[in-house]
Amino acid sequence: MKKLVLVSIFSALLLSFASGQSTVFVVRHAEKATDGDAKDPNLSEVGRARAESLAAMLKDANITSIYATEFKRTQETGDPLAKLIRLPLTIVPAKETQSLVAKLKSVEGNALVIGHSNTIPEMLQSLGARDSITIEDADYDNLFVVTLASPARVIRLHFPGGN
Length: 163
Description:
This protein has about 160 residues and is of the alpha/beta class. It is built from five helices and six strands, in the order H-E-H-E-H-E-H-E-H-E-E. A six-stranded mixed sheet has the order 3-2-4-1-5-6, sandwiched between helices. Helix 3 links the parallel strand 2 and strand 3.
């Protein structure tokens, strides 16, 4: 399964390089803890393991920017990769999806965006996804690979977590 995910990512990157366009990797934050702050929870142990898995998968994807929202769970999902490749997280308020989309359309290189189940579908549509996308409450394993070409291409993958 992990090999299939890596082959798919590699294929998307090859398409990106061939077309001279950037690739945006979009994930929902990893699993959140159920104890503690209900409005802004940390990641659970499973969520932290999933964040580490994401970092291992994307460490060689030539990520040049990482975007997260103001919430701890998105930042904690991006932190392992940010530390591994020595990039800062850029914080964009969750309600400013269109502002982020504008940044992504002009980004040079590849980007990782960590969002929420209610912000990712709109973002993907704005980036050029043709199909409607829904993310269920229990879905934390989606990895969307968006090639910013004309037309944009969106590949939906699932990546392993830590459970």
